[in-house]
Amino acid sequence: MSWLEAEDCRQVLQLQKEDGRCHLIKLLKWEDFDEEKDLKPGIILDYLYNTIIFAAEKGFPWPSVAVAVCFSEELLYETEGKTMQEALRNLRDKCEEYQHKLNPNYLQHLVNHLMGTFFKHYRLYQFVLCEDRVIDQTVYDLVVQIPHEAPSLKDGVSAELWKYQKQITELSEAEDQLRAGMVAFRETMQLKSEQELEKFYEDLKFQDKEVIERANLEKIIKAAHEIQMSVASELLQKEIETAFQILDLKIQKTTISLPATKSLQSPVTKETKTGRKGKKK
What we know:
Elements: H1 6-14, H2 17-28, H3 39-57, H4 62-78, H5 84-98, H6 104-116, H7 122-130, H8 159-204, H9 214-255, H10 267-280
């Protein structure tokens, strides 16, 4: 059970409903809960919140409002799992217990309130309090696509010019990607060459001050040279392929025709100028 003070009830009443319910959760020292997944704490919270609202609207002093909340909460839990007749007997005993804590008029108003709310839906409250709820819930995360901010009308262009600019931009981006890919490939091949040469030298395993014959030295140099040439050949082939791809993109740019711009001069202006020339003649 959670005892509320008179000041607590006053604070709840001063807030809007949702804010008041949230504040009441803090006052009751409950943990946060999801009302969609767990109905029980949400219904109990509404039950206590409505008691505060009812008592305050009936003119209960704030200490009496707190006592009314305590009465309602105790009744709720003490009647859990009981029949209607047992619950009514429990209500009678509760009234006798609180006859010296609450003014008789206020107690009568509270009983009438509980008869019209709690006992009117008694079986529903019992179902919520006593039955475990099996949750079968599927959650979908929906991504909301926010529309792009519309540009100013003064920056607008014709559809043909927009398509032309879009094609040129796409070709330029593809060209930049090829260049960036070539830079990354050069770095990869450089690292590969260094690693292969390092492994090759480690495999030789020369002894200190060992004299190497000329024939063996030539074989070592030739092998190291072949490693470097293999990497260089692969790099050169890639550079040639990339160069042709970039050249193809540049050619595509030249084949796209720029839309003809329309004259900004209006027909009215042309007619006026023609008319003036006629007058001069």
